[in-house]
Amino acid sequence: MKSDFFKFIKSNFKIFDIKNTKKESCMIIDRGRPMSIFSNSMAMRIINQRFRFKPIIFSHNRRTSWQIKMYSAFGKFIFINPKNKKSFLNFNLLAISLIKTIINFFRYYKNFNKFINFFKLDEVEIGHCIYDEYIKFNHRYKERNIYNLNFFYFLLGKIYLFYKMKKILEVKNVKILICNSLDYATYAALAARIAVKNNIKVFVADDQFKIFTNQKDINNSVFQLDKKNVKKFFLNRKKINFDDYFKKRFKGLIDTTLTSAFDLKLGNKNKIDIDKKNFLKKYIKNDEYEYVALIAPHAFTDAVHGFGKNFIFDDYYQQLEETIKYLYHGKRKNILWLIKPHPRSGHYKENGIAEKLVRKYKRKNIILLNKKISTFSAIQFSDIVITGRGSIGLEAASLGTKVIIAGYAIYQNLGFTIEPKNKQEYFRELENIKNFTKLDTKKAQIAKKYLFYFDNYRSLLPKNKMNEIDEESKDFFKILEKYMKKKKYLSDKYYIFLDEFLKKIKH
Fold first, then answer.
1. DSSP 335
2. C-alpha 413: how far from its chain's center?
3. Other CB atoms closer than 10 Å to residue 64's CB: what's the count?
4. Distance between CA 347 and CA 432 in Å, rounded?
5. How far apart are alpha carbons 115 and 217 in whole angstroms?
6. Which H or E run contains 422?
7. Is 463 left (phi over 0), alpha (psi -120 to 50) or beta?
8. Which of 5, 151, 276, 460 could form a disulfide with 477 if both were Cys (CB 3.0 to 4.6 A apart)?
9. Is 87 in contact with 80 (CB distance < 8 Å)?
10. Most distant CA pair in the chain: distance in Å?
């Protein structure tokens, strides 16, 4: 089916071409997924026609792979494969990388926080990206002394990759970079940060369109708030029944962007709804606690700084461990601290890790939330919620519960979050009884508005008709062939919107 599609497209289309192009180029860093390839190719078509930039496809997939055959079906391009040692290996860059690795390995020895926040190469901030990828494997976030030979070799590889990507961008005279993800220290993430430092535009085509031109923006989240979009989003909407919406939402009956319906079902479906008084009486066996605080950690390996570089702990695991440790030595006995592990702990192979910390710092008023209790109830009967910057913070505020965050969040600075600037402030806020009161109605309503927006902002982006087809479907390429044959993409609202959006790129 794929081969038939490739033959058809190749014989009928030239979406982009290397003929009659300038010295400048546009480079796609391939993610290897059918819809990403299609969307990237549509963007390349516009850029190739408008600016006459040479098309380049950078991919770890070989030329014989279906991914590269799909790109080849759409047009002619320059192909770069990092697995090609002859073209990718550069001994001069390797020597420079080794020297840089030795210098920086000892400069940041035993201080990962400084490495995360201050490590740069040629004024490009990448320490947080390297750290995120390093701790992604083998639960390395649990090892506080992780400056070892494994990290040395890992750092060497990433520094070399940095200089190689920088060289490619220079030699190929890249003026626009197209990526689909900016997390971890991947080819795309490093190239994108090098690009914005060198005045190369970075276009991200994923859940939304974004053009990055500076390091500050690219080191926040791709999903960062744009208040102009919020205004546009609500402009033509009728009055929203928030109560009805949130009932359906927490049951996982609505497909949402901020929190997946799957996670919402895990946290609420077939779970017990209960109020504070009955919870304390039934599950705690006493009601001596005046306050209840819910601590909701993230998945520990899930791109800590991909959601924003600014975070007052090294990672999500350190936040949970140091929080529990602080509370273990705390003086307040009238607060019940409930630890609620992330609903997808099993997916990330993190089952039992949060539980182990609770056992390590065993104290009567620090316990795990009973798995039978719904997240919806836990938020409602808690007097405060503590998170890193998770969606539960916005959910809590929407339900009138105050929330403490530990770093950049897409919903910060909106008036309903407590935002400590460092660890000292964070720990002070944990036991500040002034925080254990409900949000006023106005602030809760503002939080509801933004939760609704983040759940549904994708509706601002016209749907690509092809996105309605499961890219895993055996008929995907058959359907795509019909779509291309009739040239429907040219009248697709998604493509027209993309065309208009890319006009923001001036050259």
1. E
2. 19
3. 7
4. 35
5. 20
6. none
7. beta
8. 5
9. yes
10. 79
Q: Where are the beta strands (DSSP E) in 5-47?
A: 25-29
For every residue of 425-450, DSSP letters joined together read HHHHHHT-GGGSSPPPHHHHHHHHHH
Cβ contact 75:149 at 8 Å = no
Tens of pLDDT, residues 54-65? 999 999 999 989
Mind listing the pLDDT tens digit for each residue in 233-270? 888 787 888 888 888 888 888 888 888 878 888 888 88
Instruction: Give the contacts of 401 (CB within 8 A, at least 6 positions apart).
Output: 379, 380, 382, 383, 384, 385, 438, 439
Contacts of residue 430, defined as CB under 8 A and 6 or more positions apart, other chains included, come to 293, 323, 326, 327, 330, 386, 404
The Cα–Cα gap between 198 and 201 comes to: 9
Nearest CA-CA partner of 101 in 64, 130, 135:
130
Listed in sequence order, the residues at least 6 apart from 462 whose beta carbon sits closer than 8 Å to its beta carbon are 492, 493, 494, 496, 497
The answer to whether 85 touches 94, Cβ cutoff 8 Å, is no
The answer to whether 196 and 214 are in contact (CB under 8 A) is yes
Query: What percentage of the chain exceeds 90 in pLDDT?
Result: 59
- What is the DSSP annotation of 162-194? HHHHHHHHHHTTEEEEEES---TT-HHHHHHHH
Q: Is the dihedral of CA 128, 29, 69, 469 positive or negative?
A: positive
Contact between residue 465 and residue 493 where contact means Cβ atoms under 8 Å apart = no
pTM value surpassing 0.85: yes
In angstroms, the CA 86 to CA 223 distance is: 38
What is the distance between the alpha carbons of residues 334 and 281, in angstroms, rounded to a whole number? 15
Q: How confident is the model at residue 9 (pLDDT cuts 50, 70, 90)?
A: low
Residue 154 identity: F
Residues of 326-339 as b/e, b for ≥16 C-beta within 10 angstroms?
ebbebeeeebbbbb
Strand order in the sheet with 201-205: 78-80, 54-58, 25-29, 174-179, 201-205, 209-212
- C-beta neighbour count of 227 within 10 angstroms: 8
CA angle 87-92-94, nearest 5°? Answer: 80
| CA dist., res. 233 & res. 266, Å (int) | 29
